[in-house]
Specification:
It contains 9 helices and 20 strands. It is an alpha+beta fold. It comes from Actinomadura rudentiformis.
């Protein structure tokens, strides 16, 4: 299959797509345009509406309101089999009485593709997911990860105009997950597919997608390229989801020359405002990896007492506490010991400042990590 390309549609458009389950709104007025050939990731925690959106696209859930258009054709009234989409489910959805080969070939047989062509395409799909030697086995004889790869092969062998993937790598081990991530992206490119990919894993989404749609409680929180969402999160919710583990609620001291100083007592940080900071409180967002040991001339610094230190190979992940009780997560290339006092520095441009409040100190909030309300706190209705 490698190297083959098929004509992609121009665009897919969702207009005001809404899905309710009784009085609970799982997805609210989703407006989205997906370009042909694009790899789009729907990202968010359980309950945010991402799987609901995927099932609405697939035709497995009727819309409560809104419409879906493929180029100029409205398709939300079409049954799933007439949409021409491929679907990879989180729970595999394989035929237990059919061999791996026959599972992968099933859709081609229904479409009356010639036997020689079916054999060739199935062989290529099985090789792609490294299951050639298991072709004669039944799904029940495979591991969960192997079954998921059969599901991926079954979807891509059809060369659909849109591939919908719902957490397809969730049951794979870490090494195979990285490998399959690369293969999924390569398949997407080589076959000229359009892919909508649901995941709760921000690293997975960043690695695979051309654009991210981050959902929260059934609504879009931010849309952008991986670089945009990673570097310029639009809110503390996005920041927390994209790795800004330090979300520190602090008084806003001064604002001038495009910079904001936040802090209290001897604890001061200068950062870059991401929105207008007009109130008395602000949230400073910093990634653990953006801290380093302070050196001569460093000004944006803070002192912490190390409480936890974990060896992660090339770096140490640590948790420390400031004099005022603020919990700080940081990563350093060298070991630090619990009880050790160290001075950390962070570049001004790596401190993002948002309006509002966060979880300031351990004593003040009871939160172990010192984080603001994170993605898990924002989950909406249960997804279908």
């Amino acid at each position: 299959m490698a190297g083959e390309r098929r004509a992609a549609f121009d665009h897919l458009r969702l207009e005001g797509v809404t899905r309710r389950f009784g009085s609970a709104v799982a997805l609210s007025e989703l407006d989205l345009r997906i370009e042909g050939g694009e790899f789009l990731a729907l990202l968010g925690p359980s309950g945010c509406g991402k799987s609901t959106a995927l099932n609405c696209l697939a035709g497995l859930l009727p819309l409560s309101a809104g419409s879906i258009w493929l180029d100029g054709e409205r398709i939300d009234g079409l049954p799933p089999e007439r949409r021409g989409f491929g679907m990879v489910f989180q729970n595999y959805a394989l035929f237990p009485h059919l061999s791996v080969r026959r599972n992968v070939a099933f859709g081609l047989s229904v479409r009356r593709v010639g036997k020689a062509e079916i054999r060739r395409r199935v062989d290529e799909a099985l090789a792609l997911v490294e299951l050639t030697e298991h072709a004669g086995k039944l799904p029940g004889q495979l591991s969960g990860g192997q079954q998921q790869r059969v599901a991926i092969a079954r979807a891509v062998v059809l060369r659909p105009r849109l591939v919908l993937m719902d957490e397809p790598l969730s049951n794979l081990d870490a090494k195979l997950r990285v490998q399959m991530r690369t293969e999924i992206r390569r398949m997407h490119q080589d076959l000229g597919l359009t892919t909508v990919y649901v995941t709760h894993d921000q690293e997975e989404a960043l690695a695979l997608a051309d654009r991210l749609v981050v959902l929260r409680a059934g609504k879009v929180e931010q849309i952008g390229t991986p670089e945009e969402v990673y570097t310029y999160p639009s809110s503390t919710y996005i920041a927390g989801f994209m790795g800004y583990r330090n979300l520190l609620g602090l008084p806003a001291v001064t604002t001038e020359n495009g910079r904001v100083v936040v802090g209290e007592g001897a604890f001061r940080l200068t950062g870059v405002p991401q929105e207008r900071v007009s109130g008395p409180r602000a949230v400073a967002a910093v990634r653990p990896e953006d801290f380093r040991r302070a050196g001569p001339g460093d000004r944006n610094t803070l002192d912490v007492r190390v409480e936890v230190s974990e060896f992660h190979g090339r770096e140490v992940a640590a948790e420390g506490v400031t004099e005022g009780g603020h919990v700080i997560h940081f990563r350093l290339p060298e070991r630090v010991a619990p009880g050790e006092r160290i001075e950390l520095a962070v570049p001004v441009e790596r401190v993002l400042v948002f309006a509002g409040t966060g979880a300031g100190t351990r004593a003040g909030t009871g939160a172990r990590t010192g984080e603001a309300a994170g993605p898990a706190d924002a989950a909406g209705p249960e997804e279908a």
